[in-house]
Write the structure tokens for this entry.
Amino acid sequence: MKPSVETHNLTVIYDKKPAIWNIDFTLPTGKIIGIMGPNGSGKSTLLKAIMGIIEPNIGYSKVFDQDLEDVRNKVSYVPQRQSVDWDFPASVWDVVAMGRYATKGLFKRLTKEDHRMIEESLSKVNMTPFTNRQISQLSGGQQQRVFLARALAQNADLYLMDEPFVGVDAATEQAIITLLKSMRDAGKTLLVVHHDLLTAQDYFEHMVLLNSRLVAEGPTSEVFTKDILTETYGGTLTTLSKVANVLQEKDFPMRHK
Amino acid sequence: MEFLTEIWSFFTFSEPNVKVVFWGSLILCSISGLVGTFTLLRKRSLIGDVISHAVLPGIALAFIIGQQKNPLYLIIGATITGWISTYLVDYITKHSKIKNDTAIALILSVFFGVGVLLLTHIQHSGNASQSGLDQFIFGRASAMNMSDVWLFSIVGTIITILIVIFFRGLSLLSFDENYSQSIGFPNELLKLILSITTVTTVAMGVQAVGVVLMSALLITPAACAKFWTNKIIPMAILALVISGASGVLGSAISYTYNGMPTGPWIVVVVSLFAFISAFIGRKNGLLKKYLQRSKNNTKILRENTIKLFFNPKTLGETQFSFEDIFAKSKMQRATLKKGLSLLKSDKLITTNQGTYATTSLGIEEAKTIVRKHRLWELYISKFMHLQPDHVHDDAEGIEHVITPEIERELEKELDFPTKDPHDSDIPY
């Protein structure tokens, strides 16, 4: 089976300091995969680098064994809910319709089929009654559902989700995980940034544990162990962060060209 | 009155130059309202201010090089320095420890300072054709001529077409830049279109409004429009209309009273629109909030007054005198009278020779409000773990908020209770 995402020595440098360093893994398809790690461990950066939103400084990633450009319409990205201003003049429908722009591009009109897919996505997240609601009037959980509906409208095979469970109520969290599981059952692959250790084991079959570097990657039963968690959450490696600090202070290049 | 007739005479185009001023300011200001919608939505209002100040050195340099006031040269010069300024702000923010607001303040003052220096140099150079160049600081619509207007309409049309064609991309870029990138939209191209249209608009607009106040014309119309609509297309159109109207009115006033700079007048008019919008705007206006609040206050008074008639044993039978009710209430005399007259006009109570009695409708109403009060007391004592003597004040406020829908939910969640935390009956 083709891998869903593979990264090779993926390194992203922020302000001369590596935010993620030499991330190297190959992930399976058709699974709900959690990306776990402490604050500032580069979880979101990893997603953005895979999605091409940030250009990696070193290394590369592939999606379904191809360059992202060639399979972009098979990949859908769900940004952090807090990354946008919900006071923007748009309705729920307007936001979900953006999911169709992925195939329609800048200029093509939305057809009846697109409208049908938008409505279907809204009903999958139980937001149909809110179709014409202004997005500024939504609760946190509803905002997250709208973002998921937008991703569903893209009809992709791989979904990259950045913290979809943050700031949502318990009912929404349940609804989201049920939705994710039904997507997985339909053969989709889901890569989900998450930070709640309590629920991680129930939600994910496969995990990536991150702390600027890759700590472990594999089936949950194998990597969700006390030792690995201690290594992930037990702070940064002293020598590694010293090297990073020297890189930043002295402005050394990471690689010679 | 005389003031109005004089303004009106502007719109009759009795003087030939009036036509030029009318069309010139209409085009310049409308475009700036349209472009400004995206500046506002992308939260780059302060960048608008940087650009408008940074076009001044461009105008001066264009004059020094060309030695004449050719509008095309001036616009090109203005566009170049305006664009460099935004580029520098972004570059400094990205590549140094200096934060965005500091970079904005730095670049704005440096460019404006250099602009004023160059302008002073030109004025002392003795070149006769330089007269009027200093009007770029506060703007003078009456200094425009027909060839300017032609230039503005051509450039304005191009800008409008660009924005209409790329509207989908520009909206998505403004709402969610990362997502736009993720679905493969050409973010860099879209940003370039926005920065070029913004800089060009400002470069033209300073002719009418001047560099100091140009950013107000960019941002205020869009801010006004947001009080009226929550959809982006109507917002852009409304911003364009408000901006165009302010431009024409402002120019008319400044033209009628010769010698007044145009920019400040346009800004006064557009600010007036902003003030009106903030007050009576349909979406977020203050008047709407005020009306809602006074509606709430009436509801609270009405419900608090009917509650005074609630007495489980003698419900509906007793005749109360005003003094009885007043003693029971904690209201001012006048407030209570107002409350009673509200009840009377709603037929919840009847009066008979100075005494008051509830109607059957009033009994139901009184029971409802007491029921809501007690349900809420029970609910918060259970779910917020409050002592029974701590729940009354909260319930006094919340009882007016509970809708029939929430009431049903409370009943269900509490399993249709019969007693409140103080062991009083909950009336059904």
Notes: The interface with chain A takes residues 41, 43, 165-166, 168-169, 171-172, 174-176, 178-179, 181-186, 226, 229-232, 235 of chain B (CB under 8 Å). DSSP finds 18 helices and three strands in chain B.
